Amino acid sequence: MSEAIYNLAFDFGASSGRMVLCKYQDGKMELEELHRFPNDEVRIGGHIYWDLFRLYHEMKQGLKKAAARKVPIQSLAVDTWGVDYGLFDKDGNLIGNPVNYRDSRTDGMMEEIARVIPLEELYNRTGLEFMYFNTIFQLYAEKGMRPVIYENASRLLFMPELFGYFLTGIMYTEYTFASTSQLLDARKRQWDFALIEKLGLKKELFGDIVMPGTIIGDLLPEVVEETGLLGVKVIAVGSHDTASAVAGAPLESDDAAFLSCGTWSLLGMVLDEPILNEASYKYNYTNEGSIEGKIQFLKNINGLWIMQNLRKNWCQFEGEVSFPDIIREAKAAKRQDFIIDPKDPRFTAPINMMKEIVSYCQEKGQGTPEGLGEMAMAIYNGLTQEYKKSVEAMEDITGKTIPCINMVGGGIQDELLCQLTAKATGKKVVAGPIEGSVLGNSIMQLKAMGVISSLEEGRQVIKNSFEQKVYLP
Fold first, then answer.
1. Among residues 424, 315, 449, 441, which one has the least CA distance to residue 31?
2. 241 is catalytic
């Protein structure tokens, strides 16, 4: 038996963060969640912010727990949701708290930018799907919302690199995350400084880009002293959580689709080069950065965020329910045909998700959903119909026939969702592993440290270590 290799994967979702201890030994991996904490947005003065310093405090609590385990941890890495950032002054101080991507400050920004550069040209340069919260629209809004902060900013760090900077004192920008900004040249994998200048944004904000698998540096002495964790390298992995999730998906074939299913649903394929043509623009597909310089050609679909908020509101107003309760009620619902459009803005950040689901169905002439089960079915039907449309669009754009969908993420624990996905798309669904982002994060650390040689070797390790379940149409 060979010596065990340990690393730490920090994975931040829209509602929680966690630190997982990853053990690699004899071609297999084991995971142990050492620390989990809430990631709640904070509403102040009409805007929504991240509780940044609480999150960093929780990271250090996790590092203390890791140090207490007395195992030889080689490295750590952070992956988070996309697009959001913090701004720093010339002395390296954070100025202003990072704004949450669900904030309304970007309302109307797409139209304003379209006056400066035609959206079709913007897509042809950056390859990114038009979503109101992309970094490009946030930064454009920043100049009006917080002009003093913006004018005094000399560097932008995206969320994973922001945490990495707190840990190491080193500023860096990782490729997969930078690709979510809509300011990156999709073909060259570098900043489009001509675009940045055209929009009147400050070029100095954007630092050199490193690729996934880059060793950044050591923990600061103050972090070592506070946490007791010694000899640990900080590594830039696929720091956009979708890139880590795709890395952690053991795809059945080159033509297989992936579906990272959590707060958001990310459905797509891995390609060697971006697709930037009339069809991809029409269908509004995105070309995000992936591991080993590849492209994640995908569609962002509002995901289980809607179901999470339905449960939250039901618990507030009707009584405590669990997700298994919701699944059971959905299966037993008298009417199974209610459906919402997950893309409708009313489902982005509502105060009361129950009210929005009911009002949507009424407005569309479907009648009134009665009870938890019928509301849940409206969500299931909405999501799986979006999956169906997205698969069909990908086949049309790429000219490929997708034989299988590999589902990863927390959503695969919902067997009803997996089965309905197979039924709606007409494709075989292979579900697993649950911890796609954590595993993708960890195997890229192993690659950076020379323990494994390639992403494919890492995916094979994952396949050997965790069960997958098959759902047929």
1. 441
2. yes
